[in-house]
Structures are given as structure tokens and as C-alpha cells.
Amino acid sequence: MPKPNFIVAIVATLTFSTSVIADNTYAKPSQIPAKVFAAVPTFSAAKLSPSGDQVGYFARKDGEQIVIIQSLIDGQLIELPLRPGAQVQTLDWATEDTLILTHRSLKNSLISRNNGIVNHYKLVSEFGTSFDGIGTSSASRGLSPETRLYSYNLKTQQTRWLGKPRPQKIRASSENEIISQYETLIDILPNEPNHVLIGIDLYQRSKTQVYKVGIETGSRRILKMGNEGIQQWFSDQNSEVRFGIGNKVRGNWGRGDKVATLKDASGKWHNLAQAEWYKTYEVAGFTKDANVIYVSGPTETGSTGLFTLNIQTGSIIEEVFAPEAGDVQSMLGTDSLGIAYTDTMQRTKYLDPFYAKLQSNLDSAFPDMNNRIVNKARDAERYLIVSSNDRDPGTYYVYDRATSQSNRLAKVRADIMPELMAPVSAVRINMRDGSSIEAYLTLPLDHTAGDKTPFIVLPHNGPAERSTADWNWWVQFYASRGYGIIQPNFRGSDGYGQAFQRAGYNQWGGTMQDDITDTTRWLISEGLAAQNDICIAGGSFGGYAALMGSIKEPSLYQCAISVNGITNIPSVKKHDRRFWGSKLWTENMGLKGKSDKDVSPYHQAEKLNVPTLLVASKEDHRIPSKQSISMHEKLQHLNKNSTYVSIPTNEHKMVTESARLQMLQTTEKFLTEHIGHTEGR
Q1: Residues 465 and 454: beta-carbon distance below 8 Å
Q2: What is the 3-state secondary structure (H, E, C) of 295-328?
Q3: Which has the closest alpha carbon to 427: 456, 455, 462, 469?
Q4: Which of 3, 175, 485, 659 has the CB geometry, 3.0–4.6 Å to 649, for a possible disulfide?
């Protein structure tokens, strides 16, 4: 059993092992190097082993993310080997000695004759030859994300690929198996510790099958044949596969219908496309009664709440939880112990009495912090806690129920000094049509009330995502350089009910853009920013909004920054048609009553009259860098002030430290030139 003073010793070990910049202290925010903000976390995504005697987590080494297993008994460290060019997306404990790792990478792929996504280079490198179906009729698809499931035994140091296609000679089928684009872990099977349930589509027909796989041998047998269009399966508390969702392909890649299937207590599968209740509610989790499920849907106040529903009748039984602010997002774990939701930050409402009491005790012990129970040891009463707020990225604690002690384990980012971070506050802003939206306001730490500050308007990506008040590396970097930041959750954003999100459908350059404009005008009316001191910036959709905002409001912004932004709507729609079910999101792009070119920055480039910075990942798999390159070339042709910077990465959201650092340094220089002021800002 680890003692409190020994866990402090483990923290010292972690500091050494993860190359933390622990000795650097700074007198003021502007002294903090950009690389500190750009760095990946020093300790994150932690999970306890079944006994609770070990912890697995993501750490930092030489600017890269690695996976560490550490004993909570003697502090011994093991660094896991990783596939070259791949990132570990998740880690899970199958047994005390074996982990299941999800690796993610981007590969050049082809669309085969049977509409399968086949990675030619991976087939050649791992099997020595290519399978049938790759030929002259295959079309290039460019970079495509892939996930792979591996088991890793800590004692034998053996790695096994769990989704590896089997040779035809050992199977009854006459058809070759193909590497599945996505491999997903469905269930860890706690009652069968040497097996897991995984979902793989070995014939690339958009029919993910469920297999029980031996974690040591890789042997597998099929448990659930694939349904047309179902790409992802979910199991209940008893590890029984009960729910599947996906998109049914119709004729070509872009056209498809959302599909879902659900099994009741009798074993009957229900096609939810034919269920009236599924038009309003979504499956959120399972109860102990196989005929009753948790669903999320609209409450009387318009937010998204949690309800129980009878599968047989399709009727709501009761409202379980309706948050005062924010929307219910998901259930926590197959045991449905709690409900994840977001108001200003990520929160949890626990249904289980013990967890609810523990949450209350944590909130008393760590006031003014957002405290979350993120993991429990399977076979012991030990829990991982993360405590964070707007200025603190977070600290991990281990709570031992047997001793009633909470002991500090490690900081999420050991090189961040919370006392030098800027506070973030939620503000409610009235819009031109009488409605209001929420935004998050960050002012520099040395800001004096009444002073006007150079400001960055930072709309989020998506657009169906949202900003929160949680610590944000991008926001805090700009605040450390003396800029104020406003993050508007315009209509179309997630987290404010279905009606609010749908109000953004087909409002690109319309209502969504007007909400961002009204937020900017609010900054001026409140005396926070001068009208000649504001830049608009963002990534992905936020990059689109930055360009479109400068086009629609030529006198409101002094500059625009687009990071992997959408510049050409017709081109994006054409690109996205190659993805399964893309019609479900591309049909909401554009502005109702207008042609796509009317609200496409590339096609309206002659109206863009402010200095513009276009930053793009060289091989972005989501928004091709050609979008930014073409926009830059057109602006140059029009004699506009445009700068293009290519970042040598293939990640759309720039998750690597090197990409983040280059982006921060590039944008800082641009901002200093156009709205920067005194030295140190």
C-alpha cells in the first residue's frame, strides 16, 4: 500500500523521467517561452492497473508523447515501445501484466473497386505483398486516419497486433481479409481477463464485425456479424453487445443515411431508423434492466438532459438529470455511474451514492477547483482524481478508500505556473436579434480595469463544437503576451441544446458570423478593446470565420489569422464526398438562400482588405493545405497583404509540440506587427 510520503517521491521520479522544465521559474507571464505552452502534457490520460498498484499514463520525452507504466509500490518505470510514426490514442489495462493500446496514424490509402479503404503501403510492408482489389481502377484518396489495437505484455515485453488479417488458408472463406481502417476496443471483458472484444471491418464493406480476441495469442472468433452501415458497437454492463451506430453508404462515398440498431432483453434487434423516439432522443447508456436504457434529449428548458426509456414501448419513463447549464454529453462507463456534461467546464453528475459522496468530499477538500474522478482500479478501492481550473491544467491524485487518503501523484503540465496564468470568465452577450450567447473572456494577468487591450477574437472549430473555461494552451499563450481573448459560442455550437445548435445549420457567413461580429462589437462597447486593435483568428471552421469576418466587416478587424482554415466551400464539399456519410455534415454547410460561392472566402477574396496570415499543415488529412495555398495565391494576385506559412505535419489540429511551437511563434510575430504594442506584449 503506497504511503503519502512515498507518492511524493514518485513525483520526483516522474519529474526526472519526463524531461520536465521543473527548474525554470518566471517573474511575469511574458517571460514564459512559447515552447512551454506548445509542449505536450507531462502526465495525462492516466489509468490504474486492476490491483491499483501500477499506473499507466502519457508522458513527455524530447518533445514527443510516450507511454509510461509506473509502480506505485517502488516507483519503477517502464517506457513502452511505440510504432514509428504512430501516436498512442488510448491505453487500457486488460490484466495486471497486459495493456491494450490504440495506435493512431495517417497513411496514404486507396479506394478499391469494392469501395474499401485499403492502405497499399501498409499491406506491402507488413505482409510482403498486396491483396486483390488494388489495381488500375482504384482511386487515390490521400492521407487517411487509421487505428490499430495492440496488446503489450509487461513481463515478456511482447507486442501483438489484435486486428491482423489472417491468411486465407486458415479460414473457410474464399475472400481475402483486408486490413481494417479502424480497429476499436469494445469491451475489456473483466470476467475473461485473457480476452477482449474488438470491432474490425476486415472486408471493407462498412460492416464492422465483433470478435473475441485472445490478448496473448491473437486468436479470434466472431461474435457478431456486421450490419450494413454499422461502424461502431457498444456493450452493456454484462459485456453483451447491445448497440451499434454508423452510416449506410448509398451509391457513392458522400451519400448515406444514419443507421442504428439496439438489442432488447429478449435478444431482438430493433432498427432505430424505424423508431419514432429515435428522431428526438439518442442512446446514452444501459441500465440493469435490459428493456430500459438511458437516452439523451431535450428538456423543458431546451437543454439536453438524461432520461430513461422503455425499449418495448418507446416511451420515456422519467427525467434523470437536467443540468441547469450545459448539455448532457455521455454516461461514464458501462456501469452508468455518472453523467458527463459541460457548463463552463467539464463536469460530472454521479448517480451512484458513493461516487456522489466522494465528489462532494473532493469539492470540499479542493475548493475553487474542478474536481473529477477519472478512473478506478478494477479490483481495489483506489481512484484517480484530477483537480484543475481555468488557470491550472490540473493535478492527479490517488484516493485510497481503505485509508481515506488522497495523495498527490503528478501535475498534468509540471512546467506551468498557475499563478502566472490569466483568469477566464464566462460572459453573456446580447445579439442583434434579441437573443444572447455565452462567450469566454480572458484578460492578461496585468490588465487594469478601464484600460483598453489589444484583442483576439477566437471562434472555435467545428462549427458544432464549443469553447469552455478550461485551461487552454493557445489562449493562455496569447494572454501571456498581453492580448485579451474572447471565445464566442455562436449559434451552431454544441452544449446549449438542440435548437441552439440547429440554429447554425446553413448559416455559414450568416447567423453564426453575425454572432461573432456582435461579440466583437460588445468588446468595443464595454471599453475592453479599441476598434483599431482587434484581430480575428481561428482554426478549421474558426479559420473560415476569421476570413469571412474580415470580408463582411472590413473596418472591424485589423488582421485575420486562419490555421488550417476552410477557404473554399465548394472545394471542401467536393473533397468530403469521398468520406462515408459526409452528406450528414456537408448538407449543413453554406448559407441558406445563397450560393456557396457567396460565402466562400476564396470566391470573395477581393473584399478581404486586412493583413492575412494563412497557416497550414503540409499534409492535413481533414482540410487539405491546398485550401490555404490557393487562397494565398489569389490574394497575392489581387495585390492583397497575405502571408502563407507551411508547417511540416499531417495533423489537422496540430497536436505535436513542434507544430504548435511553429504556429505560436508565427502568429505571435504577425500579431506584434499588426496589433502589438509595448515591449513585453
Answers
A1: no
A2: EEEECCCCCEEEEEEECCCCCEEEEEECCCCCEE
A3: 469
A4: 659
Q: List pLDDT tens digits, range 369-408.
A: 999 999 999 999 999 999 999 999 999 999 999 888 889 9
Question: By three-state DSSP, how is residue 385 classified?
Answer: strand
Q: Can you give 69-119 as a three-state secondary structure string?
A: EEECCCCCEEECCCCCCCEEEEEEECCCCEEEEEEEEEEEEEECCCCCEEC
C-alpha neighbours within 13 Å on the C-beta side of residue 393: 23
pTM here? 0.89
With 0-12 / 13-18 / 19 or more C-beta atoms within 10 angstroms meaning exposed / middle / buried, residue 51 is middle
pLDDT tens sequence across 497-525: 999 999 999 999 999 999 999 999 999 99
CA distance 505 to 511: 9
**Measured at the alpha carbon of residue 105, what is the angle toward residues 470 and 134, in degrees to the nearest 5?**
145
Rounded to an integer, what distance in angstroms lies between the CA atom of residue 449 and that of residue 343? Answer: 27
- What letter would DSSP give residue 591? B
Angstrom distance (rounded) from CA 341 to CA 334:
17
Peptide bond into 463 cis (omega under 30): yes
Give the separation between CA 89 and CA 394, rounded to whole angstroms.
Answer: 20
- One-letter identity of residue 483: Y
Q: What's the order of all strands across the beta sheet hosting 327-332?
A: 327-332, 338-342, 346-350
